[in-house]
Amino acid sequence: MNFSELFKQTAYLCKFSPDGRYLANAVQYRLIVRDFKTLQIQQLFTCLDAIQHIEWSSDSQFILCGMYKRGLVQVWSLEEPEWTCKIDEGSAGLVDVRWSADGRHILTTADFHLRITVWSLINKSVSYIKYPKACQKGLSFSPDGKFLALAERRDCKDYISVFVCSTWQLVKHFEPETEDLTGLEWSPNGRVICVWESCLQYKILLYTADGRCIDKFTAYNMALGIKSVAWSPTSQFLAIGSYDQKVRILNHLTWKTIVEHAHPTILNKPKVVIYKEVVSKPQLLQGETEAPSQFMYRSPSRYDILEDTVQLPAVKPDLNRANPKMGVGTLAFSPDSRYIYTRNDNMPCVLWIWEMTTLDLCVVLIQDLPIKCVGWDPCQARLALCTGSNKVYMWSPAGCLSVDVPIEGTFNVQSVKWSPNGEALLLLDPEHMAVCFLSENEANLSS
Amino acid sequence: MDGMSDFLVRYMSHSDSPVSSYRNPQQASSLFSPDVCDGSGGDSFNMVNEFNSDPIMNGNLFCHKKNLDECLHHLNQELTSIGLHSLFKPDSQVFDPVQLVNCTYHLLEQFQQSKRVREELENRIHLLECDLSRCKELEQNLSRQLNQSQQETAQVQERERQLLVKNKILTAKLKSEKEEVRRLQSVLQHRDIQHKHELKKKEREHHKLKERLHQMLTDKKGTKIGMTISGVLQRPGGSRGTWSGSKQEEELFRSVVSNYEAKTKELMVENSGLRKCLIDIQTELLADNVSSADETNLTNISLDDLPQDTGQGENFKNESDSTVAPAHCQLPLEFLEGTLLKSINDKCRHLKKYIKNLEKQKSEGLKLVDKKLSPSKEDCKKTHDIDKLMRDVKRYKDIIEEQEQFIQDSMAKKNTDSHVSFLNESELEEEKENLEIQKKLFEEQRANFWKERNAFTEAAIRLHKERKVFEDTKALFLKDQFLQITPFNNKSHQEETGEQGEEPSHVLPETSRQSPCSIGKQMQTPSTGELFRKPSSVSSEPAMNESPDHDQSLSPVSEGCETPENQKLGHATTPTTVDLYQFLGIKNDKKLKENRPKSADPNIGVTPSGFLSKRNCSPSWASSGTRRCTSAVNHTRTPQQRAQDTLSQPSNIKMLLFQHRNRVLDLSDGEDADQ
């Protein structure tokens, strides 16, 4: 593991280009593009206002910067630094901006989800899509980038519109059987659109692109329902995390539940490996009233393997408040679909890793602090996580490790991002970022 | 009793009428009822007391001297009135004391009777009183119980009433609760509807506002809104945009169709995999099932209930099905469902049963299973043999130790205890004498046998000579015939046939040599003996199976004479020292090693008469215990072998002869050893 020096960044706006060659980050109103290998500044673009959003185009040639306050979008080209493009939504306002799958169109969402405007960089044409639904994930491109599925709301009813991305023409418009649709997503093989209901009701629906309902699934009624949904990269499994602290995994042929994983507070499974992070705190010296801060002392941590029955740390959620902190809120499949990690929100320090071949719990990581961010290596079954401390943690089937980020001063890792080739890890502090390079050999050694 | 007699005497003395009195008080007493008189003195005293207590006796007398007659009359009247004979003679109206006595006796009897009756009645009354009291008690008890139960019932009734009241209250509550729930539900629904309505209203408003905003935005066109771009871009990949709008839907449907096709393909692959799996299961199960059926037949496990029988019938039906199963399995599932799944289910059931059976067998007898499971019987046998041998070795070692101990003991005894040795000497003397006699007898027999043997050898030699002469003549004759009859090319053929003709005399013994014991059988059950024999089995075998012909044709070897000895060895129940030496490898006597297996071979047609006769004719040995006997034999074994070796001359003596000779030898040797 090699760590780069610290770079400044704001609002966690750091992104790898899809081809993995560049790393873009925003500092206030400046956009800095670095060559990833050398971390030398390749380009430096100055925007009109503080950047609130950046996104690479799919071909890694352009970057858009969203300045929501001003309702402005600026697009920069890496190949032609002189080329400029500015989109002004003006009084309509701006809440969201994104690239289309082809990287030649920009979709901006106006304030109040009034409309989505499609700006073509090819012929300057502008298309409007009215009535987009303001929801968790109302917009999804098909994996091949040909179609866009969009959730709409008209006449107090949900609709799904399918657009052809080449001309932005509506090709299909259908009404799903939802009361209040909250998200939709194409399967990675592009055959199915998964649609799920708001948390008031547990309901998941599967549609083909032409609007035929393939199957519906409801696990229970009269309780808070779905919290998170994830497709496996092979499209063979659909994992649904819900407020009842369970993950249900459906198969892609019969759409029946394969397995239902509960997240109990007491673990008593002999086959499960339980790693617990143990932080050795510095002893108080005479006259000291509190332990030295991180500036002075870095408390190392290690993983212990627990055996027998383990009581997992859990917090009791306040059920009288909206959006209670309970249930499976984070889950994702590993790139080879062999593993799935979940985080039950009322056990924020615990990460559960389930194996898909045995359909059983495989590993449990008990962290000292609540987990902030987890990410799978895009190339192999390996994940990195951070808990807002100065450490980064990694797990692979071979083992678990915790690494102190060797940087002077405070560096509390709030977010981790993998480079597209899985060779490096981007660590984000609220104000800084650092790159952690993992060469193959070292990766093997660490495991 | 005395009182009574006194009373009579007194009466008699006072009476004026001629009364014949009983002088003897004994007699008088005997007149009274035996019940009263035979009792003890106490009884009679009671009587007297009664008499004394009678008002007649105490002052106010009924009768006294003056009114005796009146009294008599009165009595007479009274008596007649109660149906007794009158006291007076019927014709003379004279007082008859006999009558009086009779009457009195009658009266007494009646009195006794009535007394008994009275006692009985009293008893009965007593009993009844007892019963009554018990009944009363019972009644009291019952009444108490009744009271109690009544109380309880009352309590229960009260409780029931209370509960009923409570129940009523609760049902009322429930009802009200239900109503409340219903009300609340309706309220909730109401609110929900209202909420939804409000939501819709809001949403519509929202929508309207959005529309308005939209309108305003479009109206306000111009100014800043829009895109400023320094140059248009190429499409990614350089392709141009297409204009045909109708094709877009086509594209969608194409993608949908292709998705479906891909999915169908996937499903086909999955389906074919599953079908293959089904076929595999079918075939596997069938194979298992057949074997299981065989096994069940073999082991005769009697679980053949009716359902199983029918199941087996189906299996046999299915066997024919399964021959075409791979093709059948390509049928749609609905066709397969009936037959295939049923058959598979049946098979599974069978398999389960079979497994259960197996488990049963395991628990019942491990041996059966072992036999079944053992890969090769020979290996098992070998290990078994080795085990046996090890056990034997141990046993024999123990025996040797014991024997040595015994010998030591006996030696010590001889040395120390002169008395015992003296006794032993006498025994030995006796034995010696016996043996002497027997020896003489056997010497005689031996001489006889020698004579016989010589005669036989002579006869055999003669026969041999004659045979040779005959062969010669035969050869000559054949030669002549051959020379006379055949042309030249037939000559060789004739010679061959001639040779073949001569052959049987040589071939016959060869075949006979092998016939008695089938080699295959031996191979199947290799005994310890065979293991030992293997190196020299061929050389020793001919001697085993000799026939008279064979002895004559081949140069006779007298090894056959060892067979009785071998037999003896084989049949000895207690192991001999020779055996022990063999096992322990102490003494490497090749002859013995060769001999032993022969004796173990059951195919030898020689009876162990020598051994048995020896046992029978030596009672002294038998009495001294088998160990001693065997030890005696043990010591003689090797010299005897040597003697046999020296004796092995050309001989064609029959089996009987050998047996006799051996018997003689054994005994003589044994005697030597004893001496």
UniProtKB/TrEMBL annotation, chain A:
Assigned GO CC terms: microtubule organizing center; MWP complex
UniProt superkingdom: Eukaryota
SMART domains associated with the record: WD40 (SM00320)
Alphabetical list of Pfam families matching this protein: WD40
InterPro entries: Centrosome-WD_assoc (IPR052778), WD40/YVTN_repeat-like_dom_sf (IPR015943), WD40_repeat_dom_sf (IPR036322), WD40_rpt (IPR001680)
Designated name of the protein: WD repeat-containing protein WRAP73
UniProtKB/TrEMBL annotation, chain B:
Record carries keyword Coiled coil: yes
Keyword annotations: Cell adhesion, Cell junction, Coiled coil, Cytoplasm, Cytoskeleton
Subcellular location(s) per record: Cell junction; Cytoplasm, Cytoskeleton, Microtubule organizing center, Centrosome
UniProt-listed GO biological process terms: cell adhesion; intraciliary transport involved in cilium assembly
Entry GO CC: anchoring junction; centriolar satellite; ciliary basal body
Main location: other
Residues forming coiled coils: 111-219, 386-448
Keyword Glycoprotein assigned: no
Matches recorded under InterPro entries: Adhesion_Centrosome_assoc (IPR052300), Afadin/alpha-actinin-bd (IPR021622)
Ranges for region Disordered: 492-572, 617-647
Biased amino acid composition, Polar residues: 511-528
PANTHER family: AFADIN- AND ALPHA-ACTININ-BINDING PROTEIN, SSX FAMILY MEMBER 2 INTERACTING PROTEIN
Family to which this protein belongs: Belongs to the ADIP family.
Protein name: Afadin- and alpha-actinin-binding protein
Species in which this protein is naturally found: Paralvinella palmiformis
